[in-house]
């Protein structure tokens, strides 16, 4: 019995069930290509889980006075397609048809600007900690759906932020279980 409800993807690129928080930090994909899945991690403030701060960052309304760390990041125009919270809650900020601003300076197999052709999924966590079983269940469900809808994404094209921005990024980190990719190919 699956503990994660079946996911659906509508024609506009939105998942259900998921909490939708449309971010202004996105634009059109230059070629419409979707061929890479990038796994990230985030917590705001760093190392603290829960609360509204990740939503606020991706929506462009993070209050710099709420935490000293926010003073240095509140003006960023960043987003991800999805966030998977510690309890497995799925939040979507950008439809997959659009380009989310998650990868920054990046390169995969000699191609720069990975935002142009990738989907970015954030896991609530730190690059030095572990992730929850609920997060892996949800990440597996989302990844299987994306593999089915976007055949150019293969298990070999599921990477970490650290893989496309080495030396600049370390997420999803040492605690991330990359064996989840092998389990994607098992029968659900």
Secondary structure elements and pairings:
Layout lengths: L7 E2 L5 E2 L2 E2 L5 E3 L7 E7 L10 H7 L22 E3 L5 E3 L5 E3 L6 E2 L2 E2 L5 E7 L8 H17 L8 E3 H4 L14 H6 L4
Parallel strand pairs: 3-7, 5-11, 5-12, 6-11
Antiparallel strand pairs: 1-2, 4-8, 6-7, 9-10
Q: How would you describe the overall organization of this protein?
A:
It catalyses: Hydrolyzes the link between N-acetylmuramoyl residues and L-amino acid residues in certain cell-wall glycopeptides. It is found in: Cytoplasm. Keywords: Cell wall biogenesis/degradation, Cytoplasm, Hydrolase, Metal-binding, Zinc. Its cofactor is Zn(2+). This protein has 188 residues and is of the alpha/beta class. The protein has a single domain (18-184), classed as Lysozyme-like. The chain has helices at 53-59, 133-149, 161-164, 179-184; strands at residues 8-9, 15-16, 19-20, 26-28, 36-42, 82-84, 90-92, 98-100, 107-108, 111-112, 118-124, 158-160. The strands form 4 sheets. The protein has a 6-stranded mixed beta sheet. The longest helix is centred in the C-terminal third of the chain and has 17 residues, at 133-149. The radius of gyration is 15 Å and the shape is globular. It starts with 7 loop residues before the first strand and ends with a helix.
Supply database-style keywords.
12 strands, globular, 188 residues, two-stranded antiparallel sheet, six-stranded mixed β-sheet, alpha/beta, 4 helices, Lysozyme-like
CA-based shape: globular
CATH-defined fold name: Lysozyme-like
Relative strand content: 15-25%
CATH homology superfamily name:
Peptidoglycan recognition protein-like
- Uncertain segments: none
Largest sheet: 6 strands, mixed
From the helix content, strand content and strand pairing, which structural class follows? Answer: alpha/beta
Helical stretch tally: 4
**Number of DSSP-assigned strands:** 12
Major beta sheet, strand line-up? 3-7-6-11-5-12
Rounded to the nearest angstrom, the distance between the terminal CA atoms is 10 Å
